[in-house]
Amino acid sequence: MPAAAVLLSGGLDSATVLAIARAEGYECHCLTVDYGQRHRVELQAARTVAHALGAASHREVKVDLRAFGGSALTDAIAVPKDRQPDPSRAPATYVPARNSVLLALLLGLAEVSGAADLFIGANAVDYSGYPDCRPQFIEAFEQLANVATVAGAERGVRFRVHAPLLHLTKAEIIRRGLSLGVDYSLTHSCYDPAPSGAACGRCEACLLRRRGFEEAGVADPTRYAD
Predict the structure, then answer these.
(1) Confidence of residue 204 (pLDDT cuts 50, 70, 90)
(2) 5, 53, 92, 131 — which has fewest CB within 10 A?
(3) pTM for this model (two decimals)
(4) What's the domain count of the chain?
(5) 211/201 Cα distance (integer angstroms)
(6) How confident is the model over 126-156, as pLDDT tens digits?
(7) What is the spatial distance between Cα 37 and Cα 39, in angstroms, rounded to a whole number?
């Protein structure tokens, strides 16, 4: 069974990606990054999802991006509410260089676990304008992976970065995940959850998630504060 390194945030998209990788026959080694995010409840969700979907291993690494700030997720900046995402510009919840940092860590995990395949839940349809969720970023990082590692430069390993959700709508992602047995009640997407962990229902992540379930025609299992 080939090994794969899977970036697992605990959100809807990454849970679906883990299910896809498992269905494709990969032994999945998951990585969750505690980067000082406001929505820390997603860390526990990632642990739960990794176990539920049969990950071979699950590591959690801490890299505190609050040292840089510059985002509503890592700084004293309000999370926008009741505002439909505008894909033409990055929102306040964009974390500077986050996916570059996270994929670099995932590449390290891939190299030591013997995995040539990296999976990430990036999406270029319902992606709210994040530049590090675009196809150009995925392609560029794959090229980097093959020259920045001993495995790639000296051992002939050809790393591949898989973003199977890249061109899917949120509704299509949900339908795909349900077909693979994903329990979305275990996942967390909200950027500004209540102290109880309940989703606010009003941030852009909640709005995208809600719309996705509505368009998929299935019940939304999310626990909302309202």
Answers:
(1) very high
(2) 131
(3) 0.95
(4) 1
(5) 11
(6) 666 788 889 999 999 999 999 999 999 999 9
(7) 5
Tell the residue number behind the tokens 């992540």, with chain if given.
Answer: 205
Residue-level pLDDT at 203: 94
> Counting beta carbons within 10 angstroms of the beta carbon of residue 21, is it exposed (0 to 12), middle (13 to 18) or buried (19 or more)?
buried
Q: 79: which 2 tokens?
A: 């999370």
pLDDT in tens, 44-90: 999 999 999 999 999 999 999 999 999 999 999 999 998 876 766 78
CA nearest neighbour of 76 among 66, 86, 84: 66
> Residue 147 has which token pair?
């020259």
Instruction: Show the domain range for 212.
Output: 3-216
Which helix (DSSP H) or strand (DSSP E) does residue 6 occupy?
Answer: strand 3-7
CA–CA distances in Å: residue 134 to residues 87, 108, 121, 196: 11, 22, 11, 33
In a domain, 74, yes or no: yes
Domain CATH for 9: 3.40.50.620
Per the domain annotation, does 18 fall within a domain?
A: yes
Domain assignment of residue 222, yes or no: no
Q: Is 12 exposed, middle or buried (0-12, 13-18, 19+ CB in 10 A)?
A: buried
Buried b (16+ CB within 10 A) or exposed e, 51-82: ebbebbebbeeeeebeeeeebbbbeeeebbee
Strands (E), 35-87: 57-62
Let me know if residue 223 belongs to a domain: no
Closest CA to 5 of 24, 39, 28: 28
- The SS3 call for residue 102 is helix
